[in-house]
Amino acid sequence: MATHDSVPMDRLVLGRAIDEVGGEPLPIDPKVPDHLSRLFDDCDAQLRRVRLVEQHDGQAARTALAAAGAPVDAEITYDPNHSHGKKFTQDRPFRTACLLHELMHVIVSRKYSRPAGAAGDARLINFHYAADGEVGHQARIVDSNFERLVTTVRQDRNLTGEQRGHVIDRLENYAMAQATVHNETVVLDLLVYLKLLRVSPGSATFAHLTRLSEEALERREEGGPGMHVRLVT
């Protein structure tokens, strides 16, 4: 597998999975930011403990976490013919973005600390928490971060109208409705989608998304109970 500072980024497992779900291949691009390259590596590694299942249900991809002790961490179902059905969204890049979104759900389920015995959707909560009272507070910070991001998106002249429409739709109609489980998942799928569409290097939106993703990565990898979501500008 390629290292962060070498190209092409040949992540064979992830590349095969993207092809399987009907997605757009990841870019072979020496200018891919090191942070995004790290996330591609993380998703490639996680795929080794995920079962992919084709399912023609009209859903781009969905995750079901496995029980403790299972031979895999999760099952991800996908529809290779999925169409988002929105004029501002390109389907093949979106399928790729959705696969990585679901892989981030699995990564989140394994990285964050939570109360013993947490089950179901509690395993998908994308921040550290020791008691239920810490969840709502952090979700409100995530919402504030997304509100600031929406302002950036609306002012970003380096996005096309279609790109702007896709990002705002993902934030306002999806992420902000489920902030407890759709912080870094949606941030990652938007970074991937915009990279596949070759967004301008000067895009303030791409830079803002990267800052949000870096904040989340630091909490996942270096934090623990008491390291809460931070406001990002």
Task: Briefly summarize what is shown.
This is DUF4157 domain-containing protein. This protein has 233 residues and is mainly alpha-helical.
Question: Can you tell me about this structure?
Answer:
The chain has a 3-stranded mixed sheet, with helices on one face. The chain has one domain (12-222). The protein has helices spanning 12-20, 34-46, 91-111, 133-155, 161-172, 184-196, 204-222, and strands at residues 50-54, 61-65, 74-78. The longest helix is centred in the middle third of the chain and has 23 residues, at 133-155. It is globular, with a radius of gyration of 17 Å. The chain has 7 helices and 3 strands; from the N terminus they run ααβββααααα. The chain starts with 11 loop residues before the first helix and ends in an 11-residue tail after the last helix. The chain has 233 residues and is mainly alpha-helical.
List keywords for this structure.
globular; mainly alpha; 233 residues; three-stranded mixed sheet
Largest sheet, in brief, is: 3 strands, mixed
| Number of alpha- plus pi-helical segments | 7
Low-confidence stretches: 1-9
Count of β-strands? 3
Q: Choose one word for the global shape.
A: globular
**Helix content percent band:** 40-55%
Q: What would you call the structural class?
A: mainly alpha
Number of domains: 1
Ends apart, CA distance between termini = 34 Å
The Rg value, from CA coordinates, equals 17 Å
Q: Biggest sheet, strands in spatial order?
A: 1-3-2
Mean pLDDT equals 92
Name the beta content range. Answer: 5-15%
What is the helix/strand order? Answer: HHEEEHHHHH
